[in-house]
Design brief:
Order of helices and strands of chain B: HHHHHEHHEHEHEHHHEEHEHEHHHHH
Strand order of the largest sheet of chain A: 2-1-3-4
Number of helices of chain A: 7
CATH topology of the largest domain in chain A: Glutaredoxin
Helix content of chain A: 25-40%
CATH superfamily of the largest domain in chain A: Glutaredoxin
Number of strands of chain A: 4
Largest interface: A-B, 44 and 59 residues
Number of strands of chain B: 8
CATH architecture of the largest domain in chain B: 3-Layer(aba) Sandwich
Distance between the termini of chain A: 13 Å
Helix content of chain B: 40-55%
Structural class of chain B: alpha/beta
Strand content of chain B: 5-15%
CATH architecture of the largest domain in chain A: 3-Layer(aba) Sandwich
Oligomer: heterodimer
Number of domains of chain B: 3
Largest sheet of chain A: 4 strands, mixed
CATH topology of the largest domain in chain B: Rossmann fold
Largest sheet of chain B: 4 strands, parallel
CATH class of the largest domain in chain B: Alpha Beta
Order of helices and strands of chain A: HHHHEHHEEEH
Radius of gyration of chain A: 17 Å
Number of helices of chain B: 19
Shape of chain B: globular
Structural class of chain A: alpha+beta
Shape of chain A: elongated
Strand order of the largest sheet of chain B: 3-2-1-4
Number of domains of chain A: 2
Chain lengths: 164, 428
């Protein structure tokens, strides 16, 4: 794992290249794997910096601008540094009806950040997320890859405790 | 003991705890028998005809007849190759949570449905386009794909037949517009997910210009039971001329929000009863019947059957079949503001009315909600429901956004007026 101030390793490792290759299903369409490549590199490095854009683009035969136009289009790719854990709070209609505003306000106060910011210790970044697709168990949020449903706003400390 | 998959073909085999059926467990309830039967005894065109006869309509929201969609794919030896079958598993319509259960609970039924659809159109390659946030479904699908390849249900010469198919899992990196099938295809090609001009339709020119079918998860999960049990049985499940059951959901302040498989044509009131009715102390004011981009209905519509044609006749759409409730303790202006904020953020930015109009509407709604609205703001909103309506934008995103807004401006007119008159929101 990397720190939020990671500044780029310039080169993709062999392991990353190998994993990207496993997503190239049609050799004549290498660039099609670029979104998977962004996911893989972000998983390893925390976010996608300019060097990563250049490295991935070169590896897949795209221009850096082409790849950046993709990286900045999609919601799950971070083009700025994030904390060790990313909290995605579902902001969509069912969660809104069930108390999104209160959950958001309590969470931001608990962490002493604004939406989109990272805690001063680099532990958490909070972002809103479009519908997490568990509307019958609202309100919901994700921490990294883990979904938390029926979130109790009075127990946020307990919920976040395991994420050091 | 009766077989639960006879009445509930989508969910009857799913375990109570929702964990995925293994290949062995799926085979034990008749899984992959439909693929064996089709590859051994049916021509591709027979599968398409069967699906047409069953009256299966797409379950992603638009309701296009599945067999008719397939029939537009060029067949024969001289057609461009490869042909593709793409699974739209990018469930992102706010208030919609139906495909998650099918993906997590029975991934092999989806894989079997993919093989049947791909066989019908003679596809060479298939992709599952899955939401990045669906991490449990990702792990279930990866495992199920490995099992299916190892058992010979995927890959070269499936079950010893001449038919071969590769199926790959593609994880999306998140954008609502990928639910639009041509935008999804651009995303699969590694591009920005802006929609394409239609025609040409994907059936003729889709992924990399090759013939492509995009089908929703729930649609495909219906195929194994249709092939196994027949069109007449499938039609008999439904209370309407369109066959089958449907995944119906309730979210909002019901006693027990949830998801149920019931016959097409089950009424809104019956579905609300499954959720135990409204919570104590709140009453029902509005119903968005099928995901964020459908018009509000009201308490007078509880007797309306949820099916493709009837909901349209009363001014909305069945959409995804997962309804969102508005109760009397929740501000309708605030709710429409939340919906519009979503659509404004998820506009792909390609066409001007959507890119510029939606943020404008969102700001006007926000102004009204925080108590600074002017009477003429309502004219601005009404005008935009026309300017961003069907036919004036590049795709259906903005018209979808106008559905809850336009209906709310009529149904909750008093609430909008009161926000402006009192210069405050009565709920906050």
């Amino acid at each position: 794992m990397c720190s939020p101030t990671w500044t780029g390793d310039v080169m993709l490792t062999d392991a990353i290249k190998q994993e990207i290759e496993s997503h190239i299903h049609e050799p004549e369409h290498r660039a099609a794997a670029c979104t998977e490549a962004l996911r893989i590199v972000q998983r390893e490095r925390g976010w996608i910096d300019d060097e990563s854009i250049r490295d991935i683009a070169e590896y897949l035969g795209m221009t850096a601008h082409e790849l950046d136009s993709v990286a900045t289009f999609f919601n799950l790719i971070h083009r700025r540094p994030v904390g060790r854990h990313v909290i995605r709070v579902c902001a969509s209609v069912s969660c809104w009806v069930m108390g999104y505003d209160g959950l958001r306000d309590r969470l931001l106060k608990h962490l002493d950040v604004q939406m989109g910011e990272t805690t001063s210790d680099g532990r958490f970044t909070v972002v809103p997320n479009q519908c997490l697709g568990c509307c019958d168990r609202a309100p919901a949020l994700m921490v990294n890859r883990e979904l938390h449903r029926d979130v109790d706003v009075d127990a946020l400390g307990t919920l976040l405790e395991p994420y050091r | 003991m009766t077989d639960p998959t006879r009445d509930f073909p989508l969910t009857g085999a799913i375990k109570a705890d929702g964990t995925a059926l293994s290949l062995r467990e799926y085979e034990a309830v008749g899984g992959y028998a439909a693929v064996r039967a089709a590859l051994a005894g049916m021509a591709p065109g027979d599968v398409t005809t069967l699906v047409k006869d069953a009256g299966l309509r797409g379950r992603g929201g638009a309701g296009f007849p599945t067999g008719i969609k397939w029939a537009l794919v060029p067949m024969g030896d001289d057609t461009p190759r490869p042909k593709y079958l793409v699974v739209n598993a990018d469930e992102m319509e706010p208030g919609t949570f139906k495909d998650r259960l099918l993906l997590e609970g029975n991934p092999h039924q989806l894989i079997e449905g993919v093989i049947l659809a791909a066989y019908a159109i003679q596809a060479d390659l298939s992709y599952i386009f899955l939401r990045g946030e669906y991490t449990v479904a990702e792990e279930c699908m990866q495992h199920a794909l490995q099992e299916a390849y190892a058992a010979g249900y995927l890959g070269r010469n499936i079950m010893g037949s001449p038919y071969s198919l590769d199926l790959y899992l593609h994880m999306s990196i998140g954008r609502y517009i990928c639910g639009e099938e041509t935008a999804l295809l651009n995303a699969l090609e590694g591009k920005r997910a802006t929609p394409r001009t239609k025609p040409p339709f994907p059936q003729i020119s889709g992924l990399w210009g090759r013939p492509t079918i995009v089908n929703n998860v729930e649609t495909l999960c219906n195929l194994p039971p249709i092939v196994s049990r027949g069109a007449a049985w499938f039609k008999s499940l439904s209370r309407t001329p369109n066959g089958g059951t449907k995944m119906f959901g309730v979210s909002g302040k019901a006693k027990r929000p949830g998801l149920w498989e019931r016959p097409l044509g089950t009424t809104i009131g019956e579905i609300l009863d499954l959720a135990g009715g409204m919570r104590d102390g709140v009453s029902l004011r509005g119903i968005i019947p099928g995901g964020a981009s459908t018009d509000f209905l009201g308490p007078e519509h509880l007797d309306v059957p949820m099916d493709f044609d009837t909901v349209s006749k009363v001014g909305s759409r069945m959409g995804t079949g997962t309804m969102i409730l508005l109760d009397d303790q929740t501000c309708p202006v605030g709710m429409v503001h939340n919906l519009t904020e979503f659509f404004a953020q998820e506009s792909c930015g390609w066409c001007t009315p959507c890119r510029d109009g939606l943020p404008w509407i969102q700001k006007v709604l926000h102004t009204i909600e925080r108590g600074a609205g002017r009477p003429e703001d309502l004219d601005v909103l009404r005008r935009h429901t026309k300017l961003l309506g069907p036919g004036l934008t590049f795709c259906a995103l903005a018209p979808g956004a106008m559905a809850p807004l336009g209906s709310a401006l009529v149904r909750f007119k008093e609430d909008f007026d009161r926000h402006i008159r009192d210069q405050r929101c009565a709920w906050n």
